[in-house]
Recover the amino acids of this structure.
């Protein structure tokens, strides 16, 4: 049975890392900003970073235990690690790189490496040096070099951050395909919610060395629970909340009152609303609407971003200068494709409706 | 007197002694320097500074001061020299071994410092990658670290060789200038100038110039490949 358990405690200077990763999923994601400790977690599992205290176990095999004084060398952990810059050995050819982790240069190993390069569609590049390859090709060689050693666990550290737009997208699809016939677990660390949403079944959200939320990836996005998590999953609009009764809340930052069918939880402190989920309303005001007080429009290649002032007695445009409030308070509404065509036809809406199922209830 | 006539009747032994000394001292410095550099870069900042100071000292000190210390250690009238002589029948003072020791001590810091600088330039991820792939530390060092640090190590080696070959101060104190035995090119030049024989001195100077130029040229070729991508400023 596949299972990763990593309980890691470590402090360096002011930074303290206290994370517990436990998952039986085949694809695990760790989402966090730079400096959140996500890469450090990965390095600790691989054994290339010292851990103060904790327990690391892969498929029942203990790699580290501070109490039992177990600390396997990285060489003995059978954990493959793909570095952000791929770390291919610059003086070795592609073939030698892939064979680096195999003992000796027997015919058998050579065939194994050649076979793996073929699977990564890198046959024909055996005699090239890493410096002669493109970013995507380097990544494939790095993956081949790891896979050929048949590790029990594979760790991917920001694998796509060194690639540019087009290639990044391609390699994300490719990576999933290439990992298809790998039986072990794969952990991927990234600051990109899109990459991890696509990749991982289980998701851990890290901030300042702590896990804020973990669970099935889709449920973390659907129900982030904490405001920081919601931000990291890409939510743009937040408001403080005043509970009026069991089914009514006031979103104080937006100046509107919302009625919910479900009961308002006691712990509710904030709500969030994703910028793509507003529904335009023309004419009469409906329930759970905010007045469409347009402050600014930004044109993007494939969408328009509308910035709406919160509801006040005075119009936001005039109010903003007198009260000295910033654009931070504006609500974002991102409009794509079909919806944009409707707006072009009907004109700007009078109100935006918040659908109850899309309102994020946050602590 | 023409050049070839002089070359024909000249005692060539200083060149062979210098070359032999240079090669042996370089080989010793090479391994010792790599080893020391690898040890030092892993130490914390404080230990690093102290160790680095000690290992670099012979390069900064006047060679005669280094020679003084070497005499202090190896003199056959002192404990360690007596011990070497009585136990292993090894004599250092006024022997070719003395030439090698003096040249090694003076030239070693060049090897060590170049190797250290080259090691510090290496992306640590390369070493980590080697470890996670299951390569042993020795394998990582010789198959990844040294080749990657190649140009730096090569130029260190050549500088070491040039310095070892031309060593004068410490050598003259420890090994002396015994013709055919410890008489190196540098010592021969000093000696013939004292006799006022500028022709022979000039001849040796030309030889030294050729070797020195060749060494620098070699360094530029080896490190030059990497410099192609450097932008001019």
């Amino acid at each position: 049975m596949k299972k990763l358990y990593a309980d890691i405690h470590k402090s360096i200077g002011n930074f303290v890392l206290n994370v517990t990763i436990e998952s039986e999923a085949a694809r695990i994601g760790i989402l966090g900003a730079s400096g959140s400790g996500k890469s450090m977690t990965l390095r600790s599992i691989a054994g290339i970073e010292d851990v103060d205290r904790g327990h690391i176990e892969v498929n029942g095999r203990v790699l580290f235990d501070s109490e039992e004084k177990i600390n396997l060398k990285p060489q003995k952990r059978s954990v493959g690690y793909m570095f952000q810059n791929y770390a291919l050995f610059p003086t070795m050819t592609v073939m030698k790189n892939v064979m680096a982790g195999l003992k000796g240069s027997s015919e058998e190993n050579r065939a194994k490496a050649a076979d793996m390069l073929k699977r990564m569609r890198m046959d024909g590049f055996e005699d090239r040096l890493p410096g002669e390859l493109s970013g995507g090709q380097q990544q494939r060689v790095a993956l081949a070099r790891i896979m050929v050693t048949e590790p029990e666990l594979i760790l991917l550290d920001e694998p796509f951050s060194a690639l540019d737009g087009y290639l990044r997208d391609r390699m994300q699809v490719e990576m999933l395909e290439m990992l298809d016939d790998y039986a072990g677990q794969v952990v991927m660390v990234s600051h990109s919610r899109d990459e991890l949403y696509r990749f991982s079944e289980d998701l851990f959200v890290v901030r300042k060395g702590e896990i804020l939320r973990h669970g099935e990836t889709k449920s973390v996005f659907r129900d982030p629970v904490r405001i920081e998590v919601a931000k990291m999953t890409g939510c743009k609009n937040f408001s403080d909340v005043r509970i009026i009764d069991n089914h009514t809340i006031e979103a104080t930052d937006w100046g509107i009152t919302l009625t919910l069918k479900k009961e308002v939880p006691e712990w509710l402190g904030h709500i969030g609303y994703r910028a793509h989920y507003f529904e335009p309303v023309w004419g009469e005001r409906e329930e759970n609407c905010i007045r469409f007080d347009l402050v600014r429009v930004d044109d993007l290649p494939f969408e328009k971003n509308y910035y709406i002032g919160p509801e006040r007695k005075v119009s936001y445009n005039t109010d903003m200068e007198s009260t000295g409030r910033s654009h931070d308070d504006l609500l974002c509404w991102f409009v794509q494709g079909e919806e944009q065509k409707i707006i072009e036809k009907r004109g700007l809406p009078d109100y935006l409706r918040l659908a109850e199922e899309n309102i994020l209830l946050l602590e | 007197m023409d050049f070839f006539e002089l070359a024909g009747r000249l005692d060539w032994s200083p060149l062979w002694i210098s070359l032999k000394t240079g090669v042996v001292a370089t080989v010793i410095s090479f391994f010792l320097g790599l080893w020391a550099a690898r040890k030092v870069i892993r130490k914390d900042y404080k230990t690093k500074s102290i160790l680095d100071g000690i290992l670099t000292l012979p390069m900064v000190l006047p060679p005669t001061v280094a020679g003084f210390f070497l005499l202090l250690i190896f003199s056959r009238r002192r404990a360690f020299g007596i011990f070497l002589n009585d136990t292993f029948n090894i004599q250092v003072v006024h022997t070719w071994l003395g030439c090698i020791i003096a040249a090694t001590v003076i030239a070693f810091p060049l090897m060590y410092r170049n190797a250290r600088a080259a090691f510090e330039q290496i992306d640590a991820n390369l070493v980590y990658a080697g470890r996670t792939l299951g390569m042993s530390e020795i394998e990582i060092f010789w198959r990844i670290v040294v080749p990657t640090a190649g140009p730096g190590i090569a130029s260190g080696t050549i500088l070491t060789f040039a310095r070892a070959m031309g060593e004068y101060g410490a050598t003259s104190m420890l090994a002396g200038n015994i013709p055919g035995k410890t008489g190196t090119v540098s010592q021969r030049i000093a000696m013939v100038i004292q006799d006022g024989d500028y022709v022979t001195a000039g001849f040796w100077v030309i030889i030294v110039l050729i070797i020195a130029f060749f060494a620098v040229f070699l360094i530029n070729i080896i490190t030059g490949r990497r410099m192609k991508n450097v932008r001019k400023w």
